Amino acid sequence: MEKIRKPSFAGKFYPGTKEELCSLIQTIREIEQKNTPSPNLHNDRLIGGVSPHAGYVFSAYQAIHLYNVIAAGSEPFDTFVIINPNHSGQGSSDFNLCDYTAWETPLGLVNIDTEMQKFLNIEINNQAHDMEHSGEVQIPLLQYLLKYPFRILPITMNRQNPNSAKALATMLKQAAVQLDRKIFIIASSDFSHYLPPQLGAQIDEAVLKCMVSFDTHSTFQMVKDLKASICGFGPIMTLMEYSRLIATKPVFSILRRGHSGEIHPSDKVVDYVAMVVHEKMH
Fold first, then answer.
1. Partners of 110 in the beta sheet?
2. Within 10 A of 226 (CB to CB), how many other CB atoms are there?
3. Smallest Cα–Cα separation from 51: which of 82, 72, 73?
4. Pairing label, strands 108-111, 183-188
5. pLDDT of 188-204, one tens digit each?
6. What is the DSSP code (8-state) at residue 68?
7. pTM
8. How far is CA 112 from CA 19, 29, 121, 181, in A?
9. Model confidence over 218-238: pLDDT tens digits?
10. 210 contact partners, CB below 8 Å, separation of at least 6
């Protein structure tokens, strides 16, 4: 039986009608193609990426670069695993799935990979997803840019530490192998919150240096030491662990960095970084 999650954040974080939503994404895409063209990774193996989750008018200028890379990839993906932090505090265990069969946005329905959902055997908590924007905002970008059918698997990450990241990465690898899925992991995260632009950039830079070396323990320690307000560092660490499990020489490429002050000038801004993990194929 179908069980559809209605959009909770359409009209808030992104436009609520199909026409306005398509128009905004296309406008941002054209601006970014002119200012900062996305790299050509067509021949690389794509593993996953990091995408911000603020309102589109602030952070889609960064996010669009990840989705451009996905859309230009040589092979379609079966399932996009969207791992996001839990801002609402709903849900108990380390992670929560939902038991919906599809998610709806103004661009239509996207089916959940219910087979993979069952295989993972992670606790279901719909409220953790209903009240959370950071997974939902990724979906219209996939719908707009991809020309092939795909499924999603949204996961909220409630406890963000190296152990939970490794556990989830291991589960995802097993599921992908057993079910013969070509998956792409989207780690949903904004970076430093409400800091002067220069300070936020410095903190982010220190954490990014740990991330691009795929070292989850140093990443976790740096986040703690600097009290970095990078809300989805756990999903990013999961992507790091997953990449190490399935690739010999994974590479983190930073696609675009920016902050909210570029849209609305302010002395306290939120930072956004779009990244992709890929591996050269010989």
1. 103
2. 15
3. 82
4. unpaired
5. 999 999 899 899 999 99
6. H
7. 0.96
8. 24, 27, 15, 13
9. 999 999 999 999 999 999 999
10. 218, 219, 221, 222
